[in-house]
Amino acid sequence: MKLLKTALALTLITLVFNPANAQQRGLSFALKLAVNDYLDLKNALLANKVSLAQNKAGKFVFDLNTVPDKDMNSQQHSAWFNYLSRLQSTSRAMGETTSIEAQRKEFSALSNAMYSMLKDLKLTPFMLYRQYSQAKDAYWLSNSRLIKNPYFGIAEKQMVKEGVTREVLSPSK
Q: Where does the UniProt annotation place the signal sequence (predicted)?
């Protein structure tokens, strides 16, 4: 929890002292930050790093709160608030647990909400791959076609490659 608070404080300081913060750069930039946070969180799980995953979950929550809904049309606004609390609560749960397995379970729910939110907003910031682990019956998003299953992590050399790309989300224009 202490690491989570430190990560949030550092992110806040960075945004406050950066004159070109996420809200000033607009919706596209803020969503890109949030998606990058999600990918960092996935990579922390892949590396089996509980405390790093806690920090990344905290940063993800913080950056979700910087997404400017005023720049959304009415359909996007509705979709955003449909998913925001789910994304926040799941991320907070990941930040509060010290169990990698519990984090991975929450990550499955987070991945489903993230995917649905991006599809409904129609604002994917860059190419993403929706990948699926049959062994864990869980999805995740990746910025690489290469399968690196975060539900197993790099320590399980054979299983880390288990999975398949089910969909490609192209960047919004």
A: 1-22
What would the two tokens of residue 95 be?
């930040």
Q: What is the pTM of this model?
A: 0.84
- Dist CA 35 CA 47 (whole Å): 18
Residue-wise pLDDT tens digits, 112-152? 999 999 999 999 999 999 999 999 999 999 999 999 999 99
**Looking at beta carbons, which pairs linking 21-29 to residues 24 or more positions away fall under 8 Å?**
21/66, 22/63, 22/66, 22/67, 22/68, 23/66, 23/68, 26/68, 26/71, 27/67, 27/68, 27/71, 27/72, 27/123, 28/123, 28/125
Of 59, 43, 36, the C-alpha closest to 118 is 36
Which neighbouring-strand residues pair with 138?
133
Contacts of 80 (CB under 8 A, 6+ apart): 67, 69, 72, 117, 121
H-run or E-run covering 30: helix 27-46
By C-alpha distance, which of 74, 58, 69 is closest to 31?
Answer: 69
